[in-house]
Amino acid sequence: MTKVSAPARPELGLRQNWWQFSLFTLITLLVGMTIGVERVALPPLAKDAFGITSILYTISFIAAFGAVKAVLNLVSGRLSDHHGRKTLLLAGWAFGVPFALLIIFAQAWWWVVVANLFLGVNQALTWTMSVTAKIDLVGPVNRGLAVGIDESAGYVGTGLGGFAAGLLVAAFGLRPAPYLLALGVIAVGALITFGPAAETLPWARAEAASHASATPAAATTATATPAVTTATPALGRLAAYMSWQDKSMLAVCQAGLVNKFTDGMVAAIFPLYFLHKGLSLPLIGLLTGVYAWVWGLGQVASGALADRIGRKPPITAGTFLIGAGIAIIAAASARPTWFAGAAVMGAGMALAYPNLITAVGDTAHPAWRGGALGVYRLWRDAGYAVGPLVLGTVATVAGLPAALWTCAVLMAISGLILLLLLHETDPHRRTREPAWQRNPNLLQP
Predict the structure, then answer these.
(1) Which CATH superfamily is domain 13-207 in?
(2) Based on the number of CB atoms within 10 Å of its own CB, is 217 exposed (0-12), middle (13-18) or buried (19 or more)?
(3) What pTM, to 2 d.p., does this model score?
């Protein structure tokens, strides 16, 4: 196990760790900028540089990105519990370099698909580690706010990266300028990570120690909670626990999966749909920008709200709102209504997206939190891989409007599952302990 250094007695809390929290927030913004470049500059490359017109073939880069990111989320979360967050964060920045270089020198579309495999590794390692680090630093108090700030920074960064890439494309063309920007962002992120950013695993261990000290002395039998919490569960056990044994986590994981159907749809289906409706590319960019900015900026408030009222209300309401926003867009034929629908979608994402992560942070013990977040993010980002293929197939067979309606229905079903299965996870408001505390054998070898 890699040795990590930290203050002799790490203090938990946002105020106590404001400097390190700010550094990791900046890192998350840079992570978002990296993928923002791809979202704006890459789709036009398919047709303009390689003559690709097939919907499914064009969106293959999103599916490749999502598949690798999903798997690496699982691996990175597990590894970070043993080797620390900083080492994996540095590795993530290293994988961003071949992403940019492959696209700059691409001679065929498959080069671009391979480049997105590297981007998937980059995003899995960097974003997973940056959010995990923030959760480590703040501890159980203000956890929702911390995750809200993290996700807000990431999607503000996505918007900034996309905006900057758009300016560079307009001024200098599709290649290489946007990807030189990406290389610069990666370099800055790596320098901050290597330099002033601290390893935060000791903070997680300090929180784990506080959990242990708070356990009643009578809990000493073989079935007592400490036997579970002091050891890291086997990966298969943890995956089974998160995926179906804990019904609340099952609800959270499916919500994350379907949530990414929506985001993949915005990246892959929306441009085609609105071009067919007669919108110009600048207006399409503005429309998707409304969705992204409402989502990004709203997450700070929604995270703070979840600290006050619990996680289930914003998660469930947000999921239904996303579906409602998609339905508004699919049913409308006027531009103002499309923009209103995009804003409703963004508000729903702001309510649900960060608080799904917070719910996992509430449920997992600090000793295996990174692995639990990795399992959740495996399910969530699998939506990036599966969603575009499912919706792209629907669009090919039944038309683009059918793809939108399909996504809206899936979001409504996901909301119903949350209503039925998700129990409140906020430690200060939940009425029952997580399943692993009620049945410690779930995570035993």
Answers:
(1) MFS general substrate transporter like domains (1.20.1250.20)
(2) exposed
(3) 0.78
